[in-house]
Amino acid sequence: MESLPHCETLLLEKQGPILIITINRPEVRNAMSLQMVAELSTVFTQIESDLHIRAVVIRGAGGHFCAGGDIKDMAGARGQRAGAGEADPFYRLNRAFGQMIQQVNESSKVVIAVTEGAVMGGGFGLACVSDVAIAGPTAKFGMPETTLGIIPAQIAPFVVERIGLTQARRLALLGLRIDADEACKLGIVHQAASSEQDLEEMLGHAIERVRQCAPVATAETKALLHRVGHEAMSGLLDDAAEKFAEAIKGSEGTEGTMAFMQKRPPAWAGDSE
């Protein structure tokens, strides 16, 4: 198991096979700075090859998930000038966030977002690339970019993938803010908790389900799901059949079928590493 990187904007805690990332800038409602983007990217790069980590929980400190981009970084970019052959500072700022959110989206780990308070802009995008999203009773979701005279450039494609073009148009073009119940109806989150206790119980249940699922099979399944709609179906199914054959003959497939026949939990269900 690799040691976790030192971070200034994130708190990292490992609980068995689960890594909990707490966005820790409560004084600015966990607004996403360039440093935070870089630290999130570093963490996800490092854990990608760590087989001991099977899921990542992302949540925010101080009652908020993430209020969007850091205005100070935008102001700093405004004061910079691109040198000869360099990209525009605003382009670099925006694109760095897009690369990070794509990385989280494509991570082989199960990503669980626990959303409370402000879930805006970049925070909204982060919720939309999670595999499991749970909202607390205080959560407010929105794409306020157009009300600020800017555009949701990097998150819009992921929002469309999450909830479809029709609903994404309404949210983005009106700059709406919605509560947890509406976010659940739209499919932004999967569950809306009625209390803090309810939220923690939902998270605990999700983590327990992660433990029941074989880690390599889970990662392969996530990768397969991401390919749907981007490749010709016949070729995709051919490749999926090959991966199925590898899985069922592999160590996890052997253990899973044996455990089923013997009416016992599979080895990975008790994984505490």
UniProtKB/TrEMBL annotation:
Superkingdom of this protein's organism: Bacteria
Native source species: Marinobacter salinisoli
Gene3D superfamilies attached to this UniProt entry: 2-enoyl-CoA Hydratase, Chain A, domain 1 (3.90.226.10), Lyase 2-enoyl-coa Hydratase, Chain A, domain 2 (1.10.12.10)
UniProt similarity note: Belongs to the enoyl-CoA hydratase/isomerase family.
Name assigned to this protein: Enoyl-CoA hydratase/isomerase family protein
